[in-house]
Amino acid sequence: MVARTQRHGALGVIVLREAPVDQLPSELVGCRARLGRPDPERVFDRHLRAVLPGHAVPGPLYPALTEHLDTAPMRDVEQLARFVAEESAGAGGFPQWCERALSALDGDSTGAVVRELRDQLCGQQRPLALAVAMFEHSPSAVVYEAERTLVSTVELTVDGEHALVSPDFGARLDGIGAQELDGAVTFQDRTRGRKIRAYFWTHFPGLRAGFQRWIVEHPDLLDRPGLDPGVFAERFATEVLRTRGPDALAEVVERWAATARGPLELAVLTLTHGLNHPEHSPVLRRRCWTWARDPGCPAALATMLVAICTEVIAPDRLDQAVVRLHHLARHPLEAVSAAAQRGLRRLLTERSSAPRMLLGRLVGSPRPGHRPRIERDQDRLLFLTCVRPEIIRPHLARAATSDLLTTCWTAVLRDADRAVLDEPLRYWLDDQARSDADDTTATELLVTAAVRSGRPEVLLGITYDWVAGPAEREAAVRRRSVARELTDLLSAARRRTTLHRGAHP
Predict the structure, then answer these.
(1) CA–CA distance, 380 with 403 (Å, rounded to integer)
(2) Which of 223, 306, 385, 411 is most exposed, with minimal Cβ within 10 Å?
(3) CA-based angle 302:303:309, to the nearest 5?
(4) Which residues pair with 178 in a beta bridge?
């Protein structure tokens, strides 16, 4: 359904009850798409191939797996595939992997798992166990520093012997089921890190804020090679969202993106994970909207939001991406505004429905009773900067887009100074000179807007100056041809206006 919606450039989807084809208008028959639950086995197979290359779901399926797939939400299907991939390193074949993965999916932090961890991890081992679980696959020096900073952040008092007479670091790792292998610290059981993270974040509610502060205040632990920042961001964001909610995750992003010296990559990865979450993404998209509207939004955060809008929000929520980029394009800092305008131009180029969305937003008003946005100075400049002829020309055949563009140009020609209009109009005229001589759609649109604006002389004056400017011989000939077309169209429009006024004294 998504592919068909995009192919038709639809701005919305109407959900209907089952209806015979003959009851639909003929032009809508080809736009139908049947709604329904995706085939869970195909979805599971696709996710499994992504996380476990070279492995496909064998048939017939393990019975418990079939029963689970028939009833589980789609988000659990993806998570189950990841768990099966983790279990593939253990004993047995596919049925055994599935059995252990299903058990893990039912709850890593309940029942037998909790009892096991309580029995295995004594008080002195817990900081190291959580440090390894969060920073697994990092060098031992990073894990050691992570444990030290965790102890300090949560104000844990550790009693013990002097380090020289205490067990060495390798022995302590062995005591929690971990090891140092090829320079990186890992658990001997691939699923143990996930279980320990869930255990601590779930069963120590009074320390969750401290765990979050521990990570937020020490992002430099990821500066060394080893742990993939994307993997770490997923681990951290998963636990924060599960135990503290999306507002807490937004606080993390704000803290990391407060300055250009912050861990911006980690902030992007963490926010991306939250925006892709099936439950919490609406709250975080709303927070992105709040940040984008704030003129005091820090430059680093605002610039990061441009990338988030174009790369993360736009693929599935194009309308929301356009709205947020529009707000960011009005940011008082020029670097942020320019980045947002580039983001808008990219969407206008790549997505067929984006031009209509932006133009419709410019023609509309922010609140009932207020003037249209296109009448504001900032939005006029945004229109002239972003709505370029090479971007919009393929969409002029659509009446809705053409009408919106005419309305925008009418407001701009009516209210903007000639000095502001000169360069953008020359750009449009140059594009017309380079295009098919028989296609006068853009010229007709500009003429209609100029007449409606009551200032056709502005368009005519800029056109004459453009023709008189330096150009190679062939280009000069084409310029004169465009100018004649524009003059003829303008004269005809004026005659029609005069006749119309004469018929209605």
Answers:
(1) 17
(2) 223
(3) 85
(4) 187
Q: What percent of the chain has pLDDT over 70?
A: 85
Residue 99, judged by CB atoms within 10 A of its CB (0-12, 13-18, 19+), counts as middle
> What is the C-alpha separation between 56 and 62, in angstroms, rounded?
13
Asked if 328 and 302 count as a contact pair (C-beta separation under 8 A), the reply is yes
Residue that the structure tokens 């765990």 belong to: 211
For residue range 11-45, list pLDDT tens digits in order. 566 777 665 556 667 667 667 776 777 788 888 88
Find the range with the poorest average confidence among 103-107, 178-182, 265-269, 354-358: 103-107
| CB burial readout 484-494, b (16+ within 10 A) else e | ebbeebbeebe
| Cβ-proximal residues to 201 (8 Å cutoff; 6+ apart), any chain | 208, 211, 239, 242, 243
Write down the pLDDT at residue 504. 42
What six digits make up the tokens of 255?
Answer: 């803290």
Provide the H-helix boundaries in 72-185: 74-87, 94-105, 111-120, 126-135, 140-153, 169-175
Q: What is the DSSP letter of 125?
A: T
Cβ(449)–Cβ(486) below 8 Å? no
Backbone angles phi, psi at 223, to 5 degrees: -70, -20
Is the pTM value of this prediction over 0.85?
no
> What residue has token string 């008003």?
365
Phi first, then psi, for residue 180 (nearest 5°) are -105, 120
Q: Which two tokens mark 171? A: 């022995």
Per residue in 133-169, pLDDT (tens digit) is 999 999 999 999 999 999 999 988 766 655 665 678 8
* End-to-end Cα distance, the chain: 54
Q: Are 143 and 131 spatial neighbours (Cβ–Cβ below 8 Å)?
A: yes
